[in-house]
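Predict structure. Input: S1 motif domain-containing protein, 1396 residues.
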Amino acid sequence: MGKKRPPAGAIEEEETFVRGGGSGLAPVVERKLKEEAYAEAEADLLSGKKGGKRRKGGQAVAGGEGGDEEDAFFSGLALQGKLPKFVELLKFKNLSRGCKLWGAVIEVSPRELVVSLPHGLRGHVAYAEASDWLAGQSKAAAAAGAEAAGEDGAAAIAAAAAGKKRKAGTAAATEVVLPPLTDLFTIGQLVRGTVVALRSGSSGDSESAGKAGAKKAAAAEGGAGGAKKKRVDLSLRVSKMNAGLGPESLREGLALPACVSSVEDHGYLLALGVKGVSGFLPKKAAAAAGRALAPGMLLDVAVPPGGAPKPAGGGGSVLGVVCAPEAVAMAVAREWEGLNIGSLLPGQLVAARVRNVLSDGLLCSFLTYFSGTVDPFHLGADLAADWRKQFSPNQRLRARILYVDPASKRVALTLHRHLISASLPVNFPMLGQVDVRPGMPVSGTVSRVEEYGLLVALTSSIRALVPVLHASDVGTAKALRKFKAGQTVAGKVLTVDPATKKVTMTLKPSLVGSKLPPIARTQDAVPGGRSHGVVTGARDFGVFVSFFGGVTGLAHVSECGLAADQKPPEAFQAGQVVKCRVLGADPSRKGLKLSLVTKPKKAAAAAAETEAAPLAAAAAPGAAGEPAPGGSEAGGSSEAAAAAALASYQAGELVEGTVAAVHTKEVDGEAVPAYFELSVSSAGGGSDKAAAAGRLEVAHLADHPAAAAALVAALTVGSRLGPLLVLQRLENVKQLRLTRKASLLTAAAAGLLPSAVEAVAEGALLAGYVASVTSGAVFVRFLDGLTGRAGLAQLSDTFVSDPHLFFREGQSVRATVVDAQRQRFSVALKQSLCGSRDAAYLQSLFSDLEAAEALSNDAADVDWAAFAIGGIAPGEVHEAKGYGLICDLEAHADVVGLVAPHQMPAGASREPGTSVRAVVLDANKREGVVDLSLQPRLVAAAQAAAAAADAETAPKKKKQKKAAVGGKAAAAAELKEGQRLECKVELVKEEAGYCVVTLPAADGSPTGSPLLGFLPTTDFNLQYQQHQQPPRPGDSLTASVAALPSPATGGRLLLAAPVGGKPVKPAAAAGGTGAAKRPQSDKQQAQRMQQHATGSCVEATVGAVHALHADLDLDKLAVAVLGRVTTAEGRRHSVLECSSRPEAVSAARAGQALPRHPCPALAALRPGQQLQGYVQDVQQGHVWCAFSPSVRGRAFATQAASSIEECERLGKRFKPGQPVQATVVHVDKKRKALDVSLLPAAPEAASEAAAAGAPAPGTVALGRVSAVGGGGVRVRLSARSVGRVALTDIHDGAVEECLAGLQAGQYCQAVVLGPDTSASPDSGQEASGRKRGGRSSGAAAGQLLLSLRPSAGGRCAAHGAAQRRQGGAGAEVAAGQLQPAQLKPGQKVRACIFHR
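Output follows.
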């Protein structure tokens, strides 16, 4: 027989980390040899440097300053390139056996644990590996059971270790206690685990173990079926975790895991995993654990002050420990004799020091000779900000060890504040039983398809059953055919049994996609509330309906909305999803009383059928003279008739339509409406045109997304819509593309919606919609497919990196034409150019919401006149919540009143049943919610208005409904459109994009009561972007009247105020609030844009001040228009370039030619040319200067300063806005880059230096250190010149560490020796930078050889470091390069180590 192979996925453990077995040596000898080996390895890493002495107790004592030993150690590793340059996340492929990790228990079952590990990994703990005590109990039970049953003892022990259950009678016979893991572990418990196995096989073999499992996994990998599944097996046994600790490590301050072995009279005996040492926890100290301890439990303990192992009977020793959470959390790891990487424990708190700030994390050192990395997810910093600025080299931190991998010598740390305090974050995802609840959206993978339903895997240990009734909306067995194993499905949880972990879920699209609040408990069923349920049965007396969480209800036959001769079984069937209204609870049946009639109008269904009948008749074959199908001739004539009907309608024409069908699409597993198919006819019905098919997409239902959602919910087959605008004829599908957007309808009526490029004028402000969004532009469409393009620079007044974050397809926008010279013209969507000065966006929202309410057949029978804006609504408090008071209103039981906290006066009663009289601020008819106010000033004003209206109104019953708002209407009639008023914010609807404000009534009002107005806080182009801070309740604003109250907007008074990228500033109080100009129309704004011609004089207001320019709003300040800003590429910008110089403004007013100041063009610049400019910014060792609106350049630090000290104070010498005189050094026309020098130099000298591309030999030049390594020091002299300093040309004499003190980013003074002939043009980091196409591509191809020797005139930080270390110069070294001919056999030379 051949040699047996190890199981698949197993990794042989290194000899250094032996977990057991004999080596032939005594333990003392073996430990001594290990310590000597580790000491020898550390000495090798120190590169010959003598280690410091150690204090008694193992703490290191450096020979010089504190930290010198650690600095020298890591400096040596840095020179050798052995320190990490990036953070490597923990993945399954780089895990190894023996790796120790810190994790949290997320799932607990009686026989297995699931642990959440760093970086998204999961670990599985078998029963026998949960603790050492459980391992011993499992082994004893298996052995006793095997002896009783006559089985093989070894096989039984292996079965117990794998967590397999024994026969029922065996455990009872052996009387060995095997408690379930649910009694010993809790979800969220922090544990330390050791990787014992890594398995990768098919999903069906995930539970396999041992050799059989390995064979199955290998067969699965070689076969065609089954997806591979990776599994990490962990052990929580302290004997494996603490195997690297010895008795000498058990000293004050050490924290380590322990296992309860037994319960004694005065305390608990603990297993510490340290050979020969046990732990003892007194019962008084055990009370701090917060739970009753039992054998097999794991807990973290700490060695108290003065604690040390004490001899005990039997040759062992006992260590007294404590388990107080604060003592364990504050225990800091310390050095001890024999400390190595195998002794480090995950979860230990260490004092760390930042060694380097990497691109993706931190490199830290701790305990002198150990280093670890911190990944971005464990920095404990705000990643949205620049987290690199929060850390710096040599910064001292406290960190915890996240994991230790002895095989790869990798250690990871965490700085997360919760983990530092040894606790879990509040939002830590607990995936145990408590996380799955009824009504919760979940997703999983279908594991099996059975006759009784689907088995879906939600997690590795939680399965859910989808009954046949809930597999589809129909609820038949045929629906199971569309599912297969491995398919991902999304649904909602129906019921949960935490004891058995049994979960049922539903996949019904109508139930999963319901927007109504689910009923998962009886407490969720509020009388009057609506929710979706599933019919489970129908009888003659009613319909049974089930909800989530096992809640059921009965709808009596009188509440089913059926005809007199119709019975429930004829109209309802099991599995049908219905919308229910809760009437109350039924104590006799422990269920709910329900109603399936959501609108108590009996004629609603009949009316819908009446409207749909003509449409069905028109669409039927043979109707309206159409031939019946049955031959090619009939089909051809039908297509010809459809084409003729389509051709009779033109883009821009107004039509009406009736909904014929609703087409859906699947989004996140649920069916949602995509577009409505309409039967289109001419508007008004006066034309004899044939009916055509129309396509009305959801995005074209309204300008506002909330209004579009309301219309989608209200529209059904047979609904009548109009007027509609024909946007385009879709010839391929024989349909008309329609829109209902108010902005497009208004623009088309005014003739401002173009359909050809010839009708587009530059500067015109047009209404359109977003046709598509790409990564670099947004395309805006108008009539008949006419499309304009808005580039990234034209999308917003702020920086745009991804247009998808700012705009959506179908969104209504206003666009300003900036370039109409080409076939595809360009537009701008900036709010500063396209912002509306009216309330058109808000007006369309309220108008469309009223239209949706009129179309809805599902609305409650509510008389909304009783809830008029500004009227009084009596009621009583139902419940007090954190977000306000919920009130029951007398006018209608199904309407809920909500009083926000800031609308309640101080001291107001919150007790349920308290009577209130509140003022209506706003009404949401779709949701049946009314926003109220209890402020005394508003209530008193509304009551006075109602009293005045009652006095003027005849006491007729029909007029009583209008009496409450009569005073408000009279006061509103005194206002005029365009009038400016001061208003105060009362309520903010941020999601809807408006706020409710109060404003004083017009002069002469008999009541003097305040009016309510509605002010927009967003605009067409700002629907999906954060444009400004919304106003808050109590803010004072200045607004103008945009539209008076009308039934179309629900009786709301609409106001207008500028909405832009900056916060709205209220107008000054001085001057009063007189009548202002009316808001300009789109046509007037377009004409105004066309008036800003070059040479004109306009009025402007300074909006914002930047370093070198100011943003202007064309309003007050007199400026002269110079033209449009031109980019470096020569393209015209949409922003106007203006001048406030007196001579320019005077010439513009007189109509004369403007005095032009010469602005340099990048293409015309030459090296050596002098330029006048201004400092724009100073960053990363460069001074950026602006020479014109489109030309800017950079000066390297060495070309802007004359000394090292000036380079280091670059930011203090140059301030933004400071005038400078610059000399052109190099012009890169291809990359539009300009390098200049700010040093005073003659143009001829600068031109010659630029032509040469490098300084001449012997030149003393400033430079910046870019890299330090064994090959020397790399120094950048300028933007186009780089050099190398050999190790022998840094000091005049030999020093112990020639590179000490040098770091990248330091400035130095070097002497040019000549070209570096030993380096190829493409070698080194600079060459790699040129290949990558960075800004260094313009650098000279040749590299220079430099010298930093003080005798030659060089200066650097290494000279001072050498003086401090050696106190003087070493032996002199000859200058220049050493030639081979100068060497003789036996000659002594001094050299520097540059590679090892």
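The mean pLDDT is 77.
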